[in-house]
Every structure is written in structure tokens, then in C-alpha cells.
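Researcher: Sequence of Pectinesterase follows. Predict its structure.
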Amino acid sequence: MQPSRRCHLLLLLLVSALSVTTTSSAPLPVSRTFTVDQQGGGDFKFVQSAVNFVPDGNREWIRIHVKAGIYKEKITIPRGKPFILLEGDGSWNTQLAFDSHAHSTVKRTIKDLFGSSGNVTTSPTFESATFIVLADNFIARNIAFKAVAALVGGNKSAFYDCAFYDFQDTLCDFIGRHYFHRCFIKGGVDFIFGYGQSIYDNCTLESNMPSSWMLEQPGWVTAYARPSADAPGGLVFKGGSLRGAGRQYLGRAWNEFATVIFYQMSMTDIVVPQGWQSWDSSNVSSITYAEVGCEGPGANKTGRVPWEKELDEEQVQKYVDITFIDDG
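Model: Prediction complete. C-alpha cells:
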């Protein structure tokens, strides 16, 4: 990932996030740190209590350090609380978990939630997700999200060395520009889904589809849609690996504008030969599903659907460069 002469915001988030715990001469300018410790040794016992304490309209980075433990609570970072850095003691030590599931049909629109126009219907995950972030300028690092794990609906969000666990609807990459670096995402059915515009950089995707589920029905790594033909968006998986149990389609299209790219990823043999499903989209010509430079048994494209896109070098760079999620 080569920086251009422009000042790319998400690259700055990456540098800043990595410098928080190092001796860098230019650390993230954190104005204040709150500690969450369920044993009572910090400023708060609950993560949501720390979030609530952040002032509305916040304009300075505030770090919420969550000490090791399993925190069984539902957490929401509302739109009015940007510039939060949520940091754990490692995704294997600090876990946010809640036993809920997406089961109801939610008819609220983006306009209802964000005050902007749009024809995107929200997911039931809005009611069931363990963790919801709607604020812009959010960073998470070294922390795990479990159950119907997370919904990311703010703009300019970045996740580093985080983990997301569930079976169905693990990570709702809802709307906005997002960056995931060295994250672990586990699921079986539509475990990464939404309308976002995101790069997954060197992430590990792991299927937990049981071999006997629905007579060995394959799962879907992604379920994605763009609101319209001219709307920005897409999921780009750059490097990393796809592995695990059962069988998986790489994705199924929520609509005819779905856009998912797998670039230089290592894939085990869990990928079904067809690779993709159009689902209920009748116009496959406008779907952009592509695999470029991938390796491993699952990357064998023999048997792929005939409408999978073949991208030229210029088209590939449009997606894999950081400019895909950064408008300068």
C-alpha cells in the first residue's frame, strides 16, 4: 500500500493507531484516557458507561482502554461521539459479547437514522448487534466482538488486530468508508454483509459451516449491495486468507450493483466451484464479482459462474489502492 502525495485520512489513522503504544515521535494526540475494568480497578466497570461519558460533539481523540475480560453488554457509539479509540488487551483477552440474534424485520431507513437520503433498509442487526458504531472517526484495536458481533455505520472507521465471531451476520459493514487491518472474522452465512465501502487488508476469514448443516448447504462469505449504479461502495479483500470448515460461496448479490473483489488472497478448498451466486438479482451484467491473483485450491476458477468479471490492471488498482476508501 503505497501512499501518494495526498494526505490520505485512513493512512493517517493507521499510522496514528499503531503509534499509540509505541515510542513514535508523533503519537496519536489522545487528550484523555478512560480505563474500563469489570473488576473495579478502572474508571468504569462497563464499556457503555465510558462511551456515555465522552462529551457529545467531541473533537479530540479519547482512548477507552478495556482491560482483559469478557464484557457481556450491548454497546452503541452514537453519531454525536466521534474521535473514540477503543483499545483492548488483545483480541484473545478482551471480548465484548452478548447473546442475541437478528430475527426481526427493521423498516427504518438511512434517512431515519442518519438524516440523509437513501433507499437502504437497515438490518435486523441494528436491534441485535453486540457492538454498534455510528460515529465518524472511530478506531478499534486489539479487541474481540462476539455473537451477532458488530455493525459499522460511521464514516472513516478503522479496525486493527480485532476479531469478530458468530455464525450468521457476523459483521455488518453497513455504510461508510472503513479499513480493517489484520482482523479475524469467523462465520458461516453472510458473515460479512452490508452496503459499505471497505478494504480488508491481510485479514483472516474463517468458515464455521458444519458439514451437516441443511444437507451440506454451502454458506456465503459475503452478502453485499450498492444502493444504486452510481453510488460508491464495495468490499475489497486484499491479501490474507480464507479457510475453515464446510463449503462457501464467495458471495451472493443483494442486488444487481453488488461489488466484491478478492485480491491476492490464499483460499483453501472450501470454496465451491461456482464461486458466486446472483441470488435474486436477475441482471448479472452489472454485478462486479472478481478474483485477481489469488492462490490455493479454492482459487481454482474452473467452474466459476460465467458472469464473474475479468478486470484489467487499471480497474484492479482502482479497488485495491487506498484511494478506493479515501476521497482525499
